[in-house]
Amino acid sequence: MPPASTATLAAPGRPPSRRVPSAEPQPLEAQGTRAAGQSEILTLPDNLFGTRAVRTAHDRTWPWALGSFVLGAILSAQAIYFFATELAVRLPQFRPQLTEVCAWVRCTVGLPRLVDQLFIEASDLQMLDAAHPSEVLLTATIRNRAAVTQELPLIELTLTDMLSQSAARKVFYPTDYLDQSQDPSRGIGPNQEIPLKLYLNAGDIRPTGYRLYLFFA
After folding, report:
1. For the range 39-46, what are the long-range contacts, defined as Cβ-Cβ under 8 Å and sequence gap of 24 or more?
2. How many CA atoms are closer than 13 Å to the CA of 150, on its beta-carbon side?
């Protein structure tokens, strides 16, 4: 009697079944490793958009920058041209630089004009000779009480009669009342006094008084 076979007989008309090992789907692992809980950072290459976009933005920016620079230079030159003296008064430490710029833009850095800081300390009008009553001498002292050197002022002299009415009036420039050894362009220094002498011929006027007035033209 032959030994019993251990093979399982398939049912008629049905192919024999085969066992297929079960396999659970496994998640795909991304290339590279990262720590647990750390979000992945997406980075783009530097040349993703190429250099054309950067060059285009640069080409559009530099004309504006150049135009702004030129406009600022023009406005600065105009400010120096019209307000050179005022700037020198407010910024005396930059006076040499302002003078150099003015030589280029053809302007002048003048001395300050602070007339409220100029005073006549003393004055006198006297007849030089009784035989010539029309010839008189005016002496005075101008003092600058400002802390800066000032431009020399103009002096208005008014001669008055016995009724204190104006009999004659004349304006004198620094070149008229300064000594010939003095340079009017140097002005009058801070807390400096300048004496002046004016020899006058009053003509037919017999002045009994006078008035002095300092001003700038």
Report:
1. none
2. 25
Domain that holds residue 124: 115-215
Quick: pLDDT tens for 37-88: 555 666 656 555 555 555 555 566 777 777 777 767 666 666 666 667 777 7
The two tokens of residue 40 are: 């992945």
Number of compact structural domains in the chain: 2
